[in-house]
Design brief:
mainly beta; seven-stranded mixed sheet; six-stranded antiparallel sheet; 1 helix
Length: 721
């Protein structure tokens, strides 16, 4: 059973991502088919990238977990991005399991902009706010949450306004209008039955909310929900969580080392990494503060470095008899690091040591030599001609090369290596000797098909590798499985040299794996292939909605059958549902046999406002309390329509064109797809035509819209004369 990698989309019920941007708070709902698995949530900003992330284990219940809310996890948990993101409208929140993004939600740009206004009549209250023009007005709501409402005629903890006319509810009437207060605005109006409830609403503070969602299914579930709370303050939602991106200024440099010489302090550091979503780091400020106090003052000397990639500096002209504290901060347009990074200069008399990986030896293929020193800020030098790196007296050789990146060793070599630390201490010289035999190894194989997931197994296929040269043959293949975190999943599996398929079994169900394959010949093992895309291994309960289909539209309705036959077949129940864009989705169909493995529906003859967008169906399989889901898409394929002539003159209107399918009915409208019908025609021998004379010709419409009963459509300009 081929299981494609998941693509990001608004989660489908009961899964959901609920974003509270004003509090930088996320609620993850559902995902009960992944209880016990670790999820990663990332907040991304267009043009910036990831600005916040956290990991948490999915718990049983309606709420899988929360981020930046009491009882939940902090931003940065498990990811190392220790900052509470300032979530804004237009950001995207995504949830991942392993490397696969299984759902995302865009933070909707609708929010309250002013405190509620209570009219002089004491019962009428208005709430105004902003809403982007591109948003779907029917997928919005304004709400005022205040538990004190329960003791009034309202009788519940909130009041709500939805698009439409003034509508009565218990204790109040309400409506939600757009554009009343100006472009891109909304106005919620409440008329309460008693002044007490109106006053409670006027004083609700952060309980005044604007709610909007990206998608609403046929059961009115709101998916990709944003709840903007007027007056709420962002930042850490509980003690111990990291600050917001600007609270502590830019991140400071790390691994700061201060080495004292006679009248100077030499500093080295690792450049700071800016916090996503904040102004870029422009440089550093370094200052040495004398510990001696004279007249209530202490001498301070320092430098400003206007290079964000700088790795150190030297402060000269210091008193050799004075003791200093050193402070380093990063600088950006928002300020400086707080608190500063503090370093106490030390007199270092210990020489560094150098390590080499690999540490020399005989190899069949070229190697990459990586050199490291045990002291931060130490510089490593090397020579390739077997000469010494440092000469007598500690003088650096003129042929010594500063190490900045791993070295490619492609032939027999002797690399002499030594390091010097910031205090001038020189390490012992190390010689690393390589013998490269260059014996031919096989090429890296390549997978010839996507991995096919089975129950506890994955079937893999690859193309034969090049054995490496004349007289050599492939003696076998080695296949390695990897978990989502990149670690190896157990020992590799082997096949004979003439076998290029493998059923890799013994895998954990409902777990993602990726795979590599290597070829072997008489000289050894060749390089690994590229890893496959992650594939989810099937567990004991399987939902498989079949492969995507493309259905060519026909002059009559077409019956389409869905195929879930590769799902769990024993002790299981099934439910198929169409995933709709909303309650008025023009492409809604009726499923027959929705609780069987092979339901069907009728793809109707095309007519506006229908579209040719893919129809998505979700299969839910339940067995012994375990629930699994899968989706399939059915894409209608329309015919092709073209207008060859659209000519109007007084009392004579001619339209001619071509169609790709004979028998299709062509409808011609004035202006656009909702315009008045001018005429209808049938495609015959690949062409259609219409001619209107006298009064039927009407006036020149300027443009026409031509639509086929098989889904093709085109707009065309009308020429006059």
């Amino acid at each position: 059973m081929a299981v494609p990698a998941a693509s990001a989309a608004v989660p489908t019920f009961p899964d959901n991502l609920v974003v509270f941007p004003d509090r930088d708070f996320i609620t993850v709902e559902g995902y009960q088919d992944r209880v016990g698995q670790t999820a990663t949530v990332e907040v991304s900003r267009p043009g910036v990238g990831v600005i916040g992330s956290a990991r948490s284990v999915v718990s049983p219940g309606d709420v899988a977990f929360e981020i930046n809310h009491p009882g939940g996890v902090c931003w940065g948990a498990g990811t190392g991005l220790n900052v509470t993101p300032d979530i804004r409208h237009g950001d995207t929140v995504a949830i991942k399991f392993g490397t696969s993004t299984v759902g995302d939600s865009k933070v909707q740009p609708m929010y309250v902009t002013e405190v509620p206004v209570l009219a002089s009549d004491g019962v009428t209250l208005t709430v105004t706010g902003h809403i982007d023009d591109a948003m779907i007005e029917s997928q919005t709501e304004q709400r005022i949450v205040e538990p004190a409402f329960k003791d009034t005629a309202v009788g519940r903890r909130d009041v709500r306004a939805v698009p439409g006319p003034l509508t009565p509810e218990d204790g109040y009437s309400s409506m939600l209008e757009f554009g009343k207060a100006g472009p891109e605005t909304f106005t919620a109006t409440y008329v309460f039955t008693d002044p007490e409830a109106a006053q409670i609403a006027a004083n609700a503070g952060a309980g005044v909310r604007a709610m909007s969602w990206q998608f609403e299914d046929g059961d009115a579930n709101r998916q990709g929900l944003t709840i903007s709370e007027f007056g709420e303050i962002g930042g850490p939602g509980m003690g111990g969580c990291p600050n917001g991106p600007l609270t502590s200024g830019p991140a400071g440099p790390t691994s700061v080392v201060a080495a004292r010489t006679n009248s100077a302090i030499k500093l080295t550091w690792t450049p700071a990494v800016g916090i996503p979503g904040t102004p870029p780091i422009t440089g550093y400020r370094v200052h040495a503060v004398a510990q001696t106090v004279t007249g209530g003052e202490r001498l301070e000397m320092g430098k400003r470095i206007d290079n964000p990639r700088a790795t150190g500096t030297t402060i000269s002209g210091l008193n050799p008899d004075e003791t200093y504290d050193v402070y380093v901060v990063s600088v950006n347009a928002a300020g400086e690091t707080f608190p500063a990074v503090h370093a106490i200069p030390v007199v270092d008399t210990t020489a560094p040591t150098v390590s080499a990986t690999p540490a020399g030896g005989t190899f069949r293929t070229a190697q990459k030599l990586t050199l490291t020193a045990n002291e931060a800020g130490a510089e490593i030098y090397y020579t390739l001609d077997e000469s010494d790196v440092f000469l007598s007296g500690g003088t650096l050789s003129t042929v010594a090369i500063l190490y900045t990146a791993p070295l490619d060793i492609t032939a027999d070599s002797v690399v002499n290596v030594a390091a010097v630390d910031v205090s001038g201490n020189i390490s012992d010289q190390k010689s690393v000797e390589f013998i490269i035999t260059n014996e031919a190894l096989p090429s890296a194989p390549s997978f010839s098909a996507a991995p096919e997931a089975g129950t506890g197994s994955v079937t893999l296929s690859w193309a034969p590798a090049d054995p490496g040269g004349d007289g050599l043959t492939i003696t076998g293949y080695s296949v390695q499985a990897y978990l989502a975190d990149g670690s190896q999943a157990g020992e590799p599996r082997s096949t004979a040299g003439d076998v290029t398929t493998l059923v890799f079994d013994g895998l954990a169900g409902d777990t993602e794996y990726a795979f590599t394959v290597s070829a072997l010949n008489a000289n050894g093992t060749g390089p690994e292939s590229e890893r496959t895309a992650p594939v989810m291994v099937l567990g004991d309960v399987v939902a498989n909605a079949g492969t995507d289909q493309s259905i060519t539209r026909a002059p009559t309705a077409t019956t389409v059958t869905l195929d879930g036959s590769r799902s769990t077949s024993s002790n299981a129940t099934y439910l198929w549902e169409q995933v709709l864009t909303g309650s008025t989705d023009p492409d809604r169909v009726t499923l027959t046999g929705a609780t069987t493995l092979t339901p069907s529906f009728s793809l109707r003859v095309f007519a506006h406002p229908m579209t040719n967008n893919p129809l998505t169906f979700r299969l839910t399989v339940t067995s012994n309390g375990v629930v699994r889901t899968d989706q399939v898409k059915v894409t209608p394929v329309p015919d092709r329509i073209a207008v060859a002539r659209a000519q109007w003159k007084s009392r004579d209107f001619r339209i001619e064109g071509t169609g790709s399918v004979d028998g299709a009915t062509v409808t011609i409208r004035r202006g656009g797809p909702t315009g008045t019908v001018i005429s209808r025609s049938t495609v015959t021998a690949g062409v259609f035509s219409a001619r209107l004379r006298d009064g039927a010709a009407g006036t020149n419409p300027g443009t026409i819209w031509v639509e086929s009963s098989l889904g093709g459509s085109v707009s065309a300009a009308v020429t006059a004369g």
